[in-house]
Specification:
With 186 residues, this protein is α+β, with helices and mostly antiparallel strands. It is 17% helix and 28% strand.
């Protein structure tokens, strides 16, 4: 019985030391959490973005074929496109068309339709797909033609933990508004 009482006594003393060993705000033992520090500077909330790049080289698709259209694609190596980004994040792809009838240098969110020098005789339908470690930019051309190698492309990756990223309506925001929202250099 004496051994039992000593064991209970030792457990009670140990518990008391554990629960009262550190007061709130103490640095505590090594590895313990200390006081909360000041807020850091406003940043890009883990936003990842590429520089502007040329849209080349285009590859003629052998799987997306059909009467009255030609399909081309090119792949962008993007090692930050992970399964978690695909499942929980948001990826935006923008293009600046070299001869955009809306004005040179306007960044447009994909998917987007570009009409050859403002005419409706040839349509370039740009879209994109996500794969692990890459983004595939796709161009369907109706009825036929070749996409320019000089259009500029850029992507923005917004991780899943960024508040409201998946519910934001980026189609209603200009490229500049998205850049300001996430503190991205235009």
């Amino acid at each position: 019985m004496k051994k039992f009482i000593k064991s209970v006594y030792l457990i009670a003393i140990s518990g008391l030391l554990i629960f009262t060993g550190c007061k709130k705000g103490d640095d505590g033992p090594a590895g313990a959490a200390g006081p909360v520090g000041p807020a850091g500077p406003v940043g890009t909330a883990n936003i990842i973005y590429s520089s502007w790049m040329d849209s080349n080289p285009w590859t003629n698709s052998t799987t997306s074929v059909g009467a009255g259209k030609k399909t081309f694609y090119f792949d962008i190596a993007a090692p930050k496109i992970t399964a978690d980004i695909i499942d929980k994040g948001t990826v935006l792809v923008y293009v600046k068309f070299i001869s955009d009838p809306d004005g040179a240098g306007i960044a447009k969110l994909l998917p987007s339709i570009y009409y050859n020098i403002g005419g409706a005789d040839t349509q370039y339908r740009f879209q994109y797909g996500l794969f692990l470690n890459k983004i595939r930019v796709i161009c369907d051309i109706l009825p036929s033609g070749l996409p320019s190698n000089n259009n500029k492309i850029r992507y923005i990756i917004i991780p899943g933990g960024v508040p409201n990223a998946r519910t934001a309506d980026y189609t209603r925001m200009s490229y500049g508004e998205v850049c300001r929202l996430y503190n991205i250099t235009e």
